[in-house]
Amino acid sequence: MGLGSWPSVSLAEARKARNRWRDVLSSGRDPIDVRKQDNADQTAERDRLDPTFEDWTLRVFEARKATLRGQGRRGRWLSPFETHLFPQMGQRRLSELNPDILHDAFKPIWHTKWPTAEKAYQRTKIVLQEGQFMDLPCDPLDMEKAKRMLGAVNHVTTPTPSTPWQEIPDLYQRLPDTTGGDCLRLMILTLVRLDGCAGAHESEFDEGLWTVPAERIKGRVGKVTDFRVPLSTPAQALIKARSEFFNGLLFPGHTGRAIGSRGLEVILDRMEEPGRPHGFRSSFRTWTQDVDACSWEVAETVLGHTVGNKVERAYARSDLLERRRIVLEQWADHVTGAKGNVVNITR
Question: How far from 46 is each of 35, 51, 85, 96, CA to CA, in Å?
Fold first, then answer.
């Protein structure tokens, strides 16, 4: 069993170590096994008091994921770390982090992939704040210093491309009679987001009403509730037709699970349609403005947006179901060409 090399280990230190390990051997234990356990204990203590950035990030994620949609999978909370930060500084101890190291890790994406960099920045701050709260050797201010070193970002947000509302009827008719095409039709008719439509189950529909479960509604866990959607006549016909062929999930993909966003985008790409599925909501919102279809609060409620402040919502508790039913029926008339472009809305 080696005790180290001279002159790193002096003769006096070697004799002291020899005596220690001889006593261990005399007690019937293997000195090498004892030393391995000592080293493991020291490593475990170091990991507890000064974990690596990757290990601590994963621990923070585990503690927070119950508050995230889909346990953090829907928002891909860890993705910026796994793709960009862990390869750069994942094995650094928290005590080693400083503004320069953070700067170097963020620099490749700061100006070229700003939306991703901004998410990584906000989440790294959370990780460091949690570490500071637990008395670990890290400082969230280092992230702020790194941000100043990285410089300002001139990023212009590009809205999701949307199909002009005047072209929606033609698009609706051209959609293929496939699972993806029908899912896109339901998105157009109901204005429900992709997760809500793709995961639609026949048990959620009852006599002209669709109750979308809270877990498929955008928002923080515990902050959203089930969302009632009045179904227009074409929407009800679509649901009935799908239910005759599929028992349960109405829009299954090739794997048997809910169809994914890419599958729907491919359909639009093949049709040479630049608008995206999420853009249907903008198409509807612009239609309500251009034709003065309904009040602002009705239009916003159709889209599932929060209307009013907390106090106002505490008193005004209606979800405007019947008023939404009227406007969605007339939107469906426009979409399907049932009544041309004539709009006569009861406000």
Answer: 16, 7, 22, 13
Q: Does residue 297 belong to any structural domain of this protein?
A: yes
Contact 286, 299 (CB under 8 A): no
**Which residue's entry shows tokens 């003065």?**
292
**Nearest-angstrom CA–CA distance, 140 and 171:** 50
Show the domain range for 236.
165-336
Per-residue pLDDT reduced to its tens digit, 100-115 = 999 999 999 999 999 9
Q: And the tokens for 40? A: 């493991």
**Strands of 205-206's sheet in order across:** 205-206, 209-212, 227-230
CA-CA distance, 239 to 241, in Å (whole number)? Answer: 5
What is the model's pLDDT at position 44? Answer: 65
Span 263-272, pLDDT tens digits: 999 999 999 9
State how many domains the chain has. 3
- CATH number, domain at 118? 1.10.150
346 band by pLDDT with thresholds 50, 70 and 90: very low
Contact 320, 297 (CB under 8 A): yes
Residue 309 exposure: Cα atoms within 13 Å on the Cβ side: 1
CA dist., res. 341 & res. 331, Å (int): 10
What's the pLDDT at 93? 93
What is the C-alpha separation between 258 and 331, in angstroms, rounded? 26
Number of other CB atoms surrounding residue 71 within 10 Å: 15
Which residues have CB under 8 Å from 177's CB, separation 6+?
A: none
Of 125, 151, 159, whose CA–CA distance to 139 is shortest?
125
